[in-house]
Amino acid sequence: MRQELNYLKETPSQTAGPYVHIGLAPGAAGFDIYRQELGWDIAGPNARGERIRVEGCVIDGMGSPIKDVLLEAWQANADGIYAHPEHEGEVEEGFRGWGRVITDFDTGEWGFDTVKPGPVTERDGKVIAPHISLWIVARGINVGLQTRVYFEDETEANAADSVLNLIEWEQRRQTLIARKSERDGKPVYRFDIKLQGQDETVFFDI
Amino acid sequence: MKPGPLYQRDREWHPPALTPDYKTSVSRSPQYSMISLETGIGEITGPVFGHNDIDPIDKDLLSNYAKSGESPIGERIILHGRVLDENARPVPNTLVEIWQANAGGRYRHKKDTYIAPIDPNFGGCGRTLSDENGYYHFRTVKPGAYPWRNWINNWRPAHIHMSIFGTAFAQRLITQCYFEGDPLIDKCPILKSIPDPQAIEQLIARLDLNATIPLDTIAYKFDIVVRGRRSTMFENRPEGN
Ligand SMILES: [Fe+2]
């Protein structure tokens, strides 16, 4: 008898559609149903490290900001530890490292407050520059897009980062570097995501 | 043996980014090749949720927005199944979130202007954690079909949107669950963005009479599969050695 492999196939993805908010961010969509919504506080009150804001737009192939996007962020704490049992090390009480935001229905702007993550040491000892992973879903996006936010002021770490260096075209690496400014004394990093065009953001097949 | 990186995602099983019959994808589909990455620590980890995050009533869409003593209008259904990985192992304690139109095909969303009325007793969203064997279940009404602007006369088959976490950020998945026997399934440009007919079959919940509550609620079964992980029987050689 033939040997069978018996693996299952991953459930195929479908677009999040235009009404993703009612499922994943109903308060933002204008109605209260849950005692608490998930993902509005990434770092929690006790997180060490620098408090920052990350914000931007998601821009379509016509150059227009998209106004029905949902983004999720996943990051390590300031010590480079992910809040997950498979990552050895402690995170601060209340630090989850995960967040969820939607774009403004009128402007397409999104943004979240968090702490700047530290560099992460991979299992093989390689050190990855500080970054936040983003997952982007919307109407018209058939499979959620994965990208990474790196930080402009981490010049040395970015230059040594094995993921950035995997991108053959040096100018495309720039699409993953958030630009730093300051507002009310707090660092703000701008990260616009372009879905198409010459400066299309780098997306990862992970 | 500890679990290692995830299996490569089968991009031919999923819809491609550009599917012109689903018009919105035309200006929202990246055109350059994605950069393929081996999953690292930030991809094999992901957010962990617990019973403090959600409430038991969140999974009962028949009552989580209804006025006391009232119920939403529509066919009462149980939607249940398991969250598994590609190795057919259950995924326990993972967050499953759903959202849907009401029985008339209308969403409680300010951007939905369809003529079918809002149901005052129906919110249209729910969430739950899979149990220790990967089982999940919701109680809701069967959503109605609704028209949408794509071609001049497109109708979405009845569907429930589903969001699944798994245990790793690279398992993150959004999909839609359809219902066996719906004649609109073969006509939907969003469903047909999936090239393989067998993959489409995987999105169609089956009528499950054994799971019904007689004289009360009918049932549909829908298993969800997230990406599996390699077992690290042998460690990878570091590059260049
Ligand atoms: Fe829908």
Features:
heterodimer; A: 206 residues; mainly beta; two-stranded antiparallel sheet; B: 241 residues; 9-stranded mixed beta sheet; 14 strands; 4% helix; globular; binds fe (ii) ion
Briefly summarize what is shown.
Chain A contains five helices and twelve strands. Chain A has helices at residues 20-24, 26-29, 155-160, 162-166, 170-173; strands at residues 51-59, 69-74, 98-102, 109-115, 120-121, 127-128, 131-138, 145-151, 177-183, 186-190, 193-194, 204-205.
Describe the structure.
The complex is a heterodimer of chains A (206) and B (241). With 206 residues, chain A is mainly beta. Chain A has five helices and twelve strands. Chain A has helices at residues 20-24, 26-29, 155-160, 162-166, 170-173, and strands at 51-59, 69-74, 98-102, 109-115, 120-121, 127-128, 131-138, 145-151, 177-183, 186-190, 193-194, 204-205. In chain A, strands 1, 2, 3, 4, 7, 8, 9, 10 and 11 form a nine-stranded mixed beta sheet that branches. In chain A, strand 5 (120-121) and strand 6 (127-128) form a beta hairpin. Chain A is globular, with a radius of gyration of 18 Å. The relative contact order of chain A is 0.19. The model of chain A has no long low-confidence stretch (mean pLDDT 96). Chain B is mostly beta strands and 241 residues long. Chain B has two helices and 14 strands. Chain B has helices spanning 41-44, 197-201; strands at residues 3-6, 35-36, 76-85, 95-100, 125-129, 135-141, 146-148, 154-156, 159-164, 173-179, 204-207, 218-221, 224-226, 229-231. In chain B, strands 3, 4, 5, 6, 9, 10, 11, 12 and 13 form a nine-stranded mixed beta sheet that branches. A two-stranded antiparallel ribbon of chain B has the order 1-14. Chain B has a two-stranded antiparallel ribbon with strand order 7-8. In chain B, strand 10 (173-179), helix 2 (197-201) and strand 11 form a beta-alpha-beta unit. The mean pLDDT of chain B is 95. The chains are: A mainly beta (206), B mainly beta (241). At the A-B interface, helix 1, strand 5, strand 7 and strand 12 of A face strand 2, helix 1, strand 4, strand 9 and strand 10 of B. The structure holds fe (ii) ion. The site of fe (ii) ion (FE2) has 3 residues of chain B, from strand 9.
